[in-house]
Please model this.
Amino acid sequence: MKVIRDPVHGYIEIDELTTTLIDTPQMQRLRRIRQLGLSNLVYPGANHTRFEHSLGVMHLATMLTEQISSISAEEKDELRAAALLHDIGHGPLSHVTEGLIKRYTRKQHEDVKPILMKGPIADILEEHGLNASTIADHIRGQSALGQIINSEIDVDRMDYLVRDAHYTGVAFGLVDHVRLIHEMQFYEDKLVVGRGGLKAAESLLVSRFLMHPSVYYHHVSRIAETMFTRALDKLISQDIVDPFELRYMDDEHLFETMRHDEGYAGEMVRRLDERRLYKRALHVGFESVDKNVLRHRGKIERMEGEIAEIAGIDVTDVLIDIPKPPEIEEMQALIKTDGGMLHLDKASNIVATLEQAHIDNWKMGVYAPREHREAVGRAARDVFSVKKRTKQFRLTDL
Amino acid sequence: MKVIRDPVHGYIEIDELTTTLIDTPQMQRLRRIRQLGLSNLVYPGANHTRFEHSLGVMHLATMLTEQISSISAEEKDELRAAALLHDIGHGPLSHVTEGLIKRYTRKQHEDVKPILMKGPIADILEEHGLNASTIADHIRGQSALGQIINSEIDVDRMDYLVRDAHYTGVAFGLVDHVRLIHEMQFYEDKLVVGRGGLKAAESLLVSRFLMHPSVYYHHVSRIAETMFTRALDKLISQDIVDPFELRYMDDEHLFETMRHDEGYAGEMVRRLDERRLYKRALHVGFESVDKNVLRHRGKIERMEGEIAEIAGIDVTDVLIDIPKPPEIEEMQALIKTDGGMLHLDKASNIVATLEQAHIDNWKMGVYAPREHREAVGRAARDVFSVKKRTKQFRLTDL
Amino acid sequence: MKVIRDPVHGYIEIDELTTTLIDTPQMQRLRRIRQLGLSNLVYPGANHTRFEHSLGVMHLATMLTEQISSISAEEKDELRAAALLHDIGHGPLSHVTEGLIKRYTRKQHEDVKPILMKGPIADILEEHGLNASTIADHIRGQSALGQIINSEIDVDRMDYLVRDAHYTGVAFGLVDHVRLIHEMQFYEDKLVVGRGGLKAAESLLVSRFLMHPSVYYHHVSRIAETMFTRALDKLISQDIVDPFELRYMDDEHLFETMRHDEGYAGEMVRRLDERRLYKRALHVGFESVDKNVLRHRGKIERMEGEIAEIAGIDVTDVLIDIPKPPEIEEMQALIKTDGGMLHLDKASNIVATLEQAHIDNWKMGVYAPREHREAVGRAARDVFSVKKRTKQFRLTDL
Amino acid sequence: MKVIRDPVHGYIEIDELTTTLIDTPQMQRLRRIRQLGLSNLVYPGANHTRFEHSLGVMHLATMLTEQISSISAEEKDELRAAALLHDIGHGPLSHVTEGLIKRYTRKQHEDVKPILMKGPIADILEEHGLNASTIADHIRGQSALGQIINSEIDVDRMDYLVRDAHYTGVAFGLVDHVRLIHEMQFYEDKLVVGRGGLKAAESLLVSRFLMHPSVYYHHVSRIAETMFTRALDKLISQDIVDPFELRYMDDEHLFETMRHDEGYAGEMVRRLDERRLYKRALHVGFESVDKNVLRHRGKIERMEGEIAEIAGIDVTDVLIDIPKPPEIEEMQALIKTDGGMLHLDKASNIVATLEQAHIDNWKMGVYAPREHREAVGRAARDVFSVKKRTKQFRLTDL
Model:
């Protein structure tokens, strides 16, 4: 049993199986995939990678299974392998390329079966008598045990919340994950949280709520990511980048490819390299825009054209960013009480209201180079019929 | 300028004024007053005192005033003195004796003017040309500057939340107090939080929400505190303890006094010393009791008699504990936005719902020695007409 | 299995045996014994107790035994009990009263057999079929397993170093105790550290070296403790305090007893209460005094008389404090290498030199009330023939 | 005044000058230079960059200057600029390429004058009326103020020790840098540490001592770095990489360049990417080799040839690594005492012995692919006449 030093969990034990898996090129690639995409432009410390996160998820999954006597040694191995491998389907910059990969290849990052079925990982699994299909199901959360790493309240979330807080330095890494794990158990094939873990479960949701605007949706990250994905999309449409190759690339390789481009993509990446970011020309919440704004997500390029035309500038100088409203699937986690099972939002008043509270954090943005900021702002207000801010916006109005 | 090492804030600077005030017997007494009363029976690390908390509040108050140029040096001194002295009116075990002191003496712990007006503190203030009345007003929050240490969002709360988390080991000390303080300013004599501090303000309220059931209202603390206050009340009514003397006593002295008692009070304190605590015979939330239960707070002893009679035991073996519903005055803190000032609960959906969420955490208890637990439980269910738990309880039902 | 929240180790698991032991009056008394005596006069956060330290030692001992397969379940129980109970022989303020207790009763705090052989602890041990003698041997370190909690490198030291750092806020709690424990094993009935644990073992010694002058021998603590022990000694010689009773008393009770005294002892404790401490009239290292100074430790009172006479003041206004030179028994810990076993100071150059380095930190003090400070200083320099500081002092000169 | 969140120091304030400097391509490049080279192969969290370290050094330098009243506002600006820019001369992977850059270009990373004298940085400095030459002198430590960022005890060391501990998760980040800075002052143009800072200064040296074998000289990092530099050297000698360009490149660009190579360099980098590292065939301390071993540093390639020949393998399969013995220039830091100034190693016994203690940590290595490990090991023992380990090795024997 060897150990790896981890700033978040102390020491992580790795056995022969996990050591061998870690030493595959597929796992090593994750050393070069930043966990938080371009957030390091806001939080200079946020350079942590999917690699260490994967170790952390494996560590927490092991901790959880150790307290459940009904799981066999082989099942534990399969789950540990799944935990370790759960992110090998991620492309460069993690979630930043996720949307494009899905659009062009129909693959989500959890769809890793093909990666498990060939090459060194397949060999290792076979040697240890482990079933690649079962592991793939775990990773997609399509099995009882798989809920541990992929369900409403899973160890994946626990690790990334605490880890992201450690590296950004944000004070909100408050999840009492040790207590939460301690209180989790299986009940009729469902992973549930015992009554004693309710407060810890609340803390997880609240933590995610607080991290959202400060980290995950910080406007500077959104701007950088919008710039990056638009540039990448252009390279894909020019057949310079093969979207099917993306999930085998790392941050460095994709960045270098984009830097070599002499057109729009190259210019965008150089802007990112030198932190010459677009600025917010418009940045408003639900209370200021038409409630149908989410429907515009499919026709963003047309609207960018409109704005550019009104502002009298090139269309490449306008970027619209309409995020999806946050989904809080953790609300559906099951709490086991004396009287039966409840969904978390039924067991906790604060959780019940978090979905509404998340609405406060949603913002759409229109971004432009500094010199066009004002013109684009005026045009965008026009195109989106932006209202003066009214007091508050409730979920039921959507 | 000397420095004191503080586990929470690093180093705290003390100048000549504060050094001299610290060295008065009134301030030194706070070394022997535990910050969290009897919570150390639940959290063995919670032995921190009002003394270090007072240093912390002074430190944060100084940090806040340093960024406001309009405050004069003398005003700063007065505020620093007020911050340091703000808890010298507390009795033994802090909030544990607060209710009894108020009931018998009409004094709240913020009413410290008499203490400031005589003895060494008065001498020091006079020497430094500082006004004791002004300082007393600051402590009661009845002045503009006083809002810094006593208002809806003050540095008192910031210090105790982070400090209590440090010593209990609970993971919820998530307040970004540095950011919050950085964003605070005066606007027309009101202490307000700038727009950029909204998330930090939310984090403070959420932190308090999470700390409530885990620490401040943990059922074991409630049991111990109910036992203690009932014992103390008995000694007061027997003229053994003078309620007017309480705010000049420390934990040790009161405990020793009570230990010398040979009746009920002595027995209770010996139980606390040896951790032979009463147990929960009944422990239910608002959803299970009549909504008028709060009105019973005035006639607890009569109801204890009723329960004892039904259970066929001595009345001293029944303790009823009906806490006040939590007040969240922080919701009234002012947020300064472009369009004017808003109360925090209008500016934040999550804050708007916290009052409701706090209802989840309210529990009333009936406690009894282990051997009478069942009998008392049955009797209490009867007396309070306890319903089977229904799903949820909304604030508007109260 | 229940858990207790600990700020240092996270969660500590307690089983039925340990829960029952914890709930005895003997263990509960430790809640009222401060770990660091009077250090809270220097570090306001240092109010932690022997109780939580005992839980921590039990936690670490369990962690260590879990990795050694040859230990039986019963032996583990005995060791856990010993770890939990290892400090029940401490008197008030821990080490502060240790010297007096030993002088008057010949008992050291590890001599706990009589406490284990009667009362509730004896009952519990018998119920669980555990041998009180074996446990007493463990506590004195006179058994193979006992080395885990009482030997050159034991979990007792690991816990207190990290814990004292947490509560004082001092930055030196650097012990990598998890790694160190991981590398410990038994070899021919000796507890040894494997080669891979050498650096962690070095870190433990270095940590203790750094903590020494900053915390354990801070001059303000030394002054307070000298005042306190002299006062207590007086009460013992007046038959007001029975030295055989001390190890059954707690801090509060002893303080209250002393406060009731109307003579010297009462005055001293009131001084401590109000932090009117004696000041350093003389404070010098080995380089400035005769190398035979340590021999004076037996005739301190006579020398105080001499100084008082020269200074023309009352003898009670002079306190001499000649600490023992630090012993670093950890240097004798065994390191297991390929070629056999080495003592730690043979395996590590830095450890080899620590004993010498500790000499830098030794200081003798003569203390007096502020108003006599100068006169006492002059007289003391005379009596001790204090030299001008020469450059450095080597161990071999002693 | 804006703030940047830093996991180590909390918040770092940046003013207009520093903001503008940060936004130059030269500073932004540091975002892509890892602080600890290839240490992330050992510590998965060690992905932090020169960029955040530079912010940290600027933060600490500001803190230090703020307590010295004699420094003018302009001097402060120059020092802040110097602190921020002090690492812009680093090549990819920081110290990993330092040796090669020096060998081929005679430039050290502190020689940054040419970079300051042209381009956007020159413009900004001129705009603010700051002298580029003065700043360059500060960076080289060739000025009074420059000692703050480059001297025996400077804020550069303080930041990197604490920061490296945070990201590796190693427990030894024990520097009490706040206290140390608080005690630093200028005395006759020398930056000195006041008597009260002696313990904090000791802690800095001890921290570096403990970090050395665990982090900075961990054998896996040494292997990876030896592989990397040998590969890079080959590319330089083939004119594929221009050594004068290195200090303008970032990690990503250099790695991508090397990956495109189809010979030795490409193979080495792919090995690093997939963590197929060479193994230790020989790894011994001073006690096992001829004391003249350091003289071999100049003829490593010839000796690799010898070993390869004996082992009967290709010379590229042997890598010899003979590190320089550690220099501890901090020992020459000045401590100001009542009697004058002392070098730190004269004022502290532990520091006096650290140089000797560092000898324990020195190891030379001969590395080879796993399959040749044994053969190379035998040959290397032969070539270096490796002795059986004798007990200890003293500095004076060198």
Notes: Chain B has 18 helices and nine strands. The mean pLDDT of chain B is 91. The beta strands of chain B are 2-6, 10-14, 184-187, 190-194, 279-284, 319-321, 334-337, 340-343, 364-368.
